[in-house]
Specification:
This protein starts with a helix and ends with a helix. Helix 3 packs across helix 5 and helix 4 runs antiparallel to helix 5. The protein is an all-alpha fold and about 240 residues long. The protein is built from 16 helices and no strands. The chain is globular and about 60 Å long.
């Protein structure tokens, strides 16, 4: 193990907090049968992790691969913070390498925060002006995190006022069984509404009566109380 990676692991251990760890184990649903089953938390808060990512931003992709395969949640998240930074600063060739690295090592991107803080900034950015069909493969995956990556990657498109892929994926996931997908789709629909309310409402009017309740609540969160009630009561 290279010196930089060894030093990072030492600092992560130094910042450990059993109290924070216990809270995070509960928050990220790590008990048996839950979506984060078996995940291990050292107990570092996100600002500390971001600080460490900046400090060790020169770690190589081989180092980051080791971190992404770690059982410790914070090590995986720090590796993703570093990877996003490398992507942002990289030239086109480097961005291609990082994009492929992300796809090949996504097994370690296995909780919602890991997905949400990386997929839009790497997958979403990379596919903005490219073939996006890869996301359709993720949408039909049995793997929860692949499906969440598909949804959250479209945030990168939404920020560029490109809503088509989000709407297609949202329609495909209307009957998904998992609450984390309901929340993700509703959130992305809400983000569309911030930029083009008519586009969001056109989708909602066509589908809201069959949408999971959580998905609908997330999508209409910023609506007026009167309009929210109409949607929830099926009176639109």
């Amino acid at each position: 193990m290279r010196a930089g990676l060894t030093e990072l692991k030492k600092k992560i251990k130094a910042f450990r907090s059993p109290e924070v760890s216990k809270t995070m184990q509960w928050f990220f649903k790590t008990d048996k049968g839950e979506y984060g089953e078996g995940d291990i938390f050292a107990g570092l808060k996100v600002p500390t992790q971001r600080k460490l990512a900046r400090e060790f931003s020169d770690l190589s992709l081989s180092d980051l691969k080791i971190l992404l395969n770690s059982a410790v949640h914070e090590e995986r998240l720090i590796s993703l913070f570093i990877l996003v930074d490398k992507y942002v600063k990289g030239d086109e060739k480097e961005k291609d390498v990082i994009f492929l690295f992300y796809l090949k090592n996504r097994k370690g991107i296995n909780n919602w925060d890991l997905v949400d803080l990386s997929a839009p900034k790497i997958i979403g950015k990379h596919l903005l002006n490219k073939d996006k069909s890869l996301l359709f493969k993720f949408v039909v995956s049995k793997n929860l995190w692949d499906r969440r990556i598909a949804v959250l990657s479209t945030y990168g498109f939404i920020k560029n006022n490109d809503f088509a892929m989000t709407l297609k994926i949202s329609e495909m996931l209307l009957h998904d069984a998992h609450d984390l997908i309901h929340k993700a789709v509703g959130w992305m629909l809400r983000e569309i509404g911030k930029r083009d309310l008519q586009a969001e409402e056109n989708f909602l009017k066509a589908h809201y009566k069959k949408m999971p309740r959580t998905m609908l609540r997330y999508a209409i969160e910023k609506f007026s109380e009167t309009k929210r009630k109409k949607y929830l009561q099926g009176k639109i």
